Amino acid sequence: MTALDHPxxxxxxxxxxxxxxxxxxxxxxxxxxxxxxxxxxVHIEVHLPGTPDPDRLKxxxxxxxxxxxxxxxxxxxGPWYRRRYEWELTAEPDVEVVTFPPPERDALKKARTRSLxxxxxxxxxxxxxxxxxxxxxxxDTAGPVRGDGAGGTPDSSGRPAGGSVLFxxxxxxxxxxxxxxxxxxxxxxxYGGQDNSPAAPPSRTASSAGPGSAAGVGDAPSxxxxxxxxxxxxxxxxxxxxxxxxxxxxxRRPKGAPFTVNDQLMVATALMIAHWNREHGGRPKxxxxxxxxxxxxxxxxxxxxxxxxxxxxPFSAAELxxxxxxxxxxGALLRRTADRTRxxxxxxxxxxxxxxxxxxxxxxxxxxxxxxxxxxxxxxAPWTSTTLLSNIGRVPYPLDFGDAGRAHAVWFSAPAxxxxxxxVTTASTAGRLHxxxxxxxxxxxxxxxxxxxxxxEHYLHATEHTEEGKTP
Length: 472
Prior knowledge:
- The chain is α+β, with helices and mostly antiparallel strands.
- It is about 30% helix and about 20% strand.
- The strands form three sheets. Strands 7-9-15-14-12-10-11 form a seven-stranded mixed beta sheet, with helices on both faces.
- Helix 3 links the parallel strand 5 and strand 6 (about 130-135).
- It starts with 19 loop residues before the first strand and ends in a 10-residue tail after the last helix.
């Protein structure tokens, strides 16, 4: 958990300065590595069948911020020789957080572009913005099945046209997606008057011991081996990130399967990149896929901030070299992956590892630590994981906005700066899987993203057809 876990205390009067809280490890590392041309933002888009009333939504969201006060913060000013960055807590927002841009053509496309290229500043409280995007009649906000990296016209989803999209952009130095979704759920409850308590998490089938179970963990590649990179496609001349969203069926699992949907997503991501790299002449190398693990409760007392810890799921080169994947092969890979993810989730470790905790110790001024951190990041680039898969899972809140309706689609996306250059973020709502591929334009183009999307869909579908009961 982060240092932002404790209840906020604000100044009681004008003579008392706002309370300050030191940056946690995750926040400080992100602050050190900030890049203007490729800001680290998290985007969330929530699709509603109707449009909320502007005044009521602004009032509800502002009250939700007050009920989760650790989101009301800005970076405190300080001299260059200070030992820590600090968050300064505020009693109210510094700016109008909720806006209703006028309807225009390609409104969702432009909102996505803003989210990937313009981070809310840390100097104002809170470091998020919420835009309510109205449908422009071409279906781009009516729950797309597929949309291109610039928000192009998606395929028809069978839903009625119209409605709106609540578009949240988050500065990832301060907050993560699940924390902001918790705040939005509170706003939905205040706006619509409906209970938005989180649903109970799904239970996981216990793994059955078998000849491949322990071996799957023991045969994993060493963490010291530089992992594969995503092969370069057709880079675009402009800097920043591109994004593509897609809606798919939630993959089925064989009855009694020891793996979860998260394991299916992990395998589909690994096979997608392995296939892509083979097509682009990449040599077989081990893979490591970063997986955020979030142990926070989803209730009103959920700690707000960057609260996930990162683990890396390894794959050996031999596991991913085959060009033909039969049901038995994929079933064996799924079971080994399930063993690894289960073991990694059970480990107790700092959010970014012990090295990051040591690096952010307040021994030297932050300016010196920033230079050291950036240098180490460049030096460690060959050992950075291949990609990141962030599976939010089933969205736990109804997100019922009363007269504006209940959310029928929710997309998230995570930053995709090099050396990874590609991230996959998934969530499920109303029985559908919502996938966002996000990439660095210096590595891939929108056409590359569309091909990767097709590969992901192919391999995710393949994970539904496994021969259970057979050992690897």
